[in-house]
Predict the structure.
Amino acid sequence: MTDKNGRLKNGMAIFKRTLQGTIVPVVLLIVWEALTQSGFINPQILPAPSQVLLKWIAYLKPLEPYDPANMSYLAWLFSGELPHDALASIIRVVGGFGIGAGLALPLGLLMGGSARFYQLMNPLVQLLRPIPPIAYIPLAILWFGLGNPPAFFLISLGAFFPVLMNTISGVRTVDEIYIRAARNLGASGATLFLRVILPAATPHILTGLRVGIGVAFIVVIVAEMIAVNNGLGFRILEAREFMWSDKIIAGMITIGLLGLAIDTGMDRINRYLLRWHRGMDQ
Amino acid sequence: MNDLGSPQLQIEGVSKVFGSGGTEVVALNDINLSITAGEFVCLLGPSGCGKSTLLNAIAGFSLPTCGRVVANGAEVAVPGPDRAMVFQEYALFPWMTVAANISFGLEIKKIPKAEIIEKVSTLLEKLQIKEFSDRFPKDLSGGMRQRVAIARALALDSPILLMDEPFGALDALTRRSLQEELLRIWMEFKKTIVFVTHSIEESIYLADRIVVMTFRPGTIKQVVPIDLPRPRDVASSRFITIQKQLSQMVMEEQMRFQKDEAEHLRV
């Protein structure tokens, strides 16, 4: 009884907070709409939010009417320009991130675990790390031409360093007491590394992965503006050439939503993997 | 392994020097001590007297500069499960559940799964932590955590139990109940225990012998046998008499520690 009451109360509190959170955006949208509708702002420069929404829906909708002879219903539903662009961008982020993190993680574990290997590799890493991935664009095009290869190269480069640096520091800063306790229990070699050092370093590693995918998401937009002819980054740049400001903003909103979805997903994974960690309940 | 009465732990001329050149610190100087199987020995002294250094030398974490430690008939060279250690708080693996913490040492020993499950269940029962078996350490109070730490050490079946101020962070009531628990375990499992503490009362309550250590360089000031019958009454006149004697000894060293600290600040 009290539990039900409590849940109800809790639900009301969440509802109230959500309502409060929407006040500022809604007011802003109303002001924006009024300013453009009244002709105070040139819609070519800044289209009304309603116009952006209409454009976003049009961008989302399939281009052709549904014909069962051509494709399945689901395929048709996602045959619009926006789902295609979003999917292309997601594949690039996931693929590039996979390559970058997949290389950085073992290298970071090795550098963190072996002082000698660290001394060998660290100067090079410190030299390359400050170069922003964007600065690799000319080389990427020179090496890989246009298309997906340079995009994957740039994205994986963007994900590589955050994962590498965090993995190294995660392994190197494992609390000595865990290692002592493990050695006292008879652990050594691979057991010590896999069952004690690696889990103890997980919070750092996950932070690196989260930053890494964030950078990958930034780089994918840039890479698409330069090297390929689909994806969200390409689409908003293309829209500029036609002065379609509504489509630019619709594309930006999609990018924002996608970024939010990726970050939320990473947060969920973090929470699950770190359910043992202090300060991880709420 | 050893019969009761023979030495289980032999500390022979152990010295430990940290640093080198002008910044050399002699943490231990020529420590000789023989500990019998089944004995409960407390190392007592102020900060900087080398009691933890000595324990670490026995555990094999930090070998002596000269001299040697012989445990269970073999010279100590590396840490190992024949000298199970209970650390100060927070040495449980936070990513493992209570049950996983206790079984970790057994898995390393490649003990069959069924046997591990049974052993862990017995220990959970014995330490009264059964209902926490699937919890993570962060969900436990300090006292419960140290119960798990003791269970984890007991799982190794080592004849020697090393304890580094294990109850130092606990409140007085929790501390007393864990001390009683420890005495029960000590009697039941016939362990040889080396227990580091800076609490005079704790050492008298627990030990067969108290080794009082001097502040830098760490040497043995005096070995005080405690022959009070157990359970010991902390309010009895004999307990209080011993406490006064020890208090005087330890305070002398504490004064030297404080003087040294003040001198370091002046430099």
User: Anything to note?
Assistant: Residues 69 and 76 of chain A are 11 Å apart (CA to CA). Chain A has two domains: 1-41, 74-273. DSSP finds eleven helices and no strands in chain A.
